[in-house]
Design brief:
- The protein is of the alpha/beta class and 503 residues long.
- The protein has 14 helices and 20 strands.
- The chain has a nine-stranded mixed β-sheet with strand order 10-20-11-19-12-18-17-14-13. The chain has a six-stranded mixed β-sheet with strand order 2-3-1-4-5-6, with helices on both faces. The protein has a three-stranded antiparallel β-sheet with strand order 7-9-8.
- Helix 3 packs across helix 7 and helix 4 runs parallel beside helix 5.
- It starts with a strand and ends in a 29-residue tail after the last strand.
Length: 503
């Protein structure tokens, strides 16, 4: 017997401290597919939907592709964009129903102008069409801020276990295999949510340094050996959103036919206790002055020749957390230090990108770059004189290990050579998590001595293997890890580290 399963995606990680908003232009800049466009673009890719397609075909489902919308992390989703995407989704659900099950790829930290829990807001709309009885499975980013309502709206939840997120496809497969078992009547999945009193935890979910998150995932794997415990998901949370549920959480998907809710709650409680035990273990970025000193020392002694580039991560200006991606502090500091044979990207400045593209390759131009979104943050506008080395439409294909095979675009993109630094200036905010992004303007990452990337952690997937050294710095961008510098008004209290909490 075949099963009719709706396949949907609606993903945005929303930073509530930015002056920006996520509108339809932001979704179109990343992707917004409908119906048959979804399998045409996602089949065989390293994405959650790619994993869902794989299971649908292997299990003989009748997949019904509804909508797939994704925008680069930014400010809260505008009501106009939310309504347009939701209305298109629910219209297609009504026209193509009924369904036996639903799969939805979410981020888990979406905020809209009308709801601080944009993901559950979306799921409520889906449930209003498909009903409350059929099983619904979701995938979540490791940085989801999970509200209790998710356990009412979904029966299955599986979160990424890697940061950088290189297991998207696998997580999609895992969630859909559980959905398949539910459709076959093998399990009766239920979902439970617990959270420790924390805003910061799990070392932000990093899995490249064998730190706390790796130990927590080991504990989750042990809990999943118990009868009826189908999945234990650990979410590090997203501190750049002022919402009630911001911070770490534990989701347990259990089989109500073989395991009691109490057993699932006890498993979640043990994981929460262990998250709390790691609360003082954070891997924090270093100050910009220390970063520049290390780069200067390495380049002056020639120690990186042939060993691969030094990769400098502009942590707090990471567009992947909703930062502006137009902060100039790191570039200015390296120019002042006389660092050469370097590349930096991707600096968001549509105005400069358009002007330089119009001037053309070979033009020598004096202009102001960056610092235009929110000038007091991250160094402000920077006046430079440089030569236009390349102009591109910014289109590329992710080569991996994240989003492997999916199309991407940085919009109109320019390489401006200023002193010894090639600066990639783009018209669409783009986290530098793939080498092909640099290549659209002719920068070959393996041939530079220094690479500056606007990213917190995801860059390690693509750039870690070629780096002679990785330096992560906080240069005063919007997404500083110092949460005590922010005013939270909707966050539940008390929480660590903003409040004193006894063990």
């Amino acid at each position: 017997m075949t099963h009719r399963v709706a396949i949907i995606e609606f993903i945005n990680e929303s930073n509530t401290f930015t002056v920006m908003r996520s509108g339809m232009d932001d979704f179109h800049a990343s992707h917004y597919f409908k119906g048959a466009e979804i399998p045409a673009n996602f089949r065989g890719t390293g994405s959650e939907v790619g994993g869902a397609i794989e299971v649908a075909e292997a299990r003989g489902w009748t997949p019904v592709y509804i909508t797939a919308a994704h925008a680069e992390p930014n400010g809260p989703v505008t009501e106009a964009a939310r309504a347009e995407i939701t209305d298109e989704c629910t219209r297609r659900l009504r026209e193509n129903g009924p369904f036996d099950g639903v799969f939805v790829a979410l981020h888990g930290a979406m905020v809209t102008e009308t709801d601080q829990d944009g993901d559950c807001q979306f799921l409520r709309e889906i449930r209003s069409v498909v009903g409350a009885e059929i099983p619904l499975a979701v995938t979540l980013d490791l940085h989801a801020n999970v509200f209790d309502e998710l356990a009412v709206l979904a029966e299955i939840a599986v979160s990424f276990r890697t940061y950088p997120h290189v297991d998207m496809r696998e997580v999609g497969v895992e969630a859909c295999e559980l959905l398949y078992r539910a459709l076959q009547g093998e399990i009766v999945p239920r979902l439970l949510v617990r959270r420790p009193p924390m805003l910061v935890g799990c070392d932000d979910g990093r899995t490249t340094n064998d730190g706390p998150m790796c130990r927590l995932l080991e504990s989750a794997a042990e809990e999943m050996k118990a009868p009826g415990i189908l999945n234990v998901a650990i979410n590090a949370g997203f501190t750049d959103a002022d919402v009630w549920a911001a911070g770490p959480s534990v989701l347990v998907t259990y089989d109500a036919g073989t395991a009691a809710e109490q057993s699932a709650a006890e498993a979640a409680g043990r994981i929460c206790d262990r998250i709390w035990s790691f609360r003082d273990q954070w891997d924090l970025p270093i100050p910009l002055a220390d970063c520049v000193a290390r780069v200067r020392a390495a380049t002056s002694r020639g120690s990186i020749s042939g060993a691969g580039p030094i990769v400098v991560a502009d942590f707090s200006d990471n567009p992947g957390s909703g930062a502006y991606s137009d902060c100039t502090a790191v570039i200015a500091a390296l120019l002042e230090a006389g660092i050469g044979d370097a590349a930096a990207g991707a600096l968001y400045d549509p105005e400069a990108a358009a002007e330089l593209a119009a001037r053309g390759v070979g033009a020598e131009v004096t202009l102001t770059i960056g610092g235009k979104t929110d000038a007091p943050v991250g160094g402000g506008p920077l006046e430079v004189t440089g030569t236009v080395m390349a102009v591109s439409d910014g289109r590329f294909v992710f080569e991996g290990p994240m989003f492997t095979g999916l199309p991407g675009s940085a919009g109109t993109s320019v390489r401006l050579r200023v002193g010894g630094i090639d600066i990639m200036i783009v018209s669409d905010r783009t986290q530098m998590l793939d080498r092909n992004i640099f290549r659209v303007v002719g920068i070959e990452p393996t041939e530079k001595s220094v690479l500056v990337v606007k990213s917190m952690q995801h860059f390690k997937g693509a750039f870690g293997p070629i780096a002679s050294e990785v330096i992560v710095t906080d240069a005063g961008g919007l997404c500083t890890p110092d949460v005590k510098r922010r005013l939270y008004t909707r966050l539940r209290r008390p929480v660590f580290p903003l409040d004193d909490i006894n063990d």
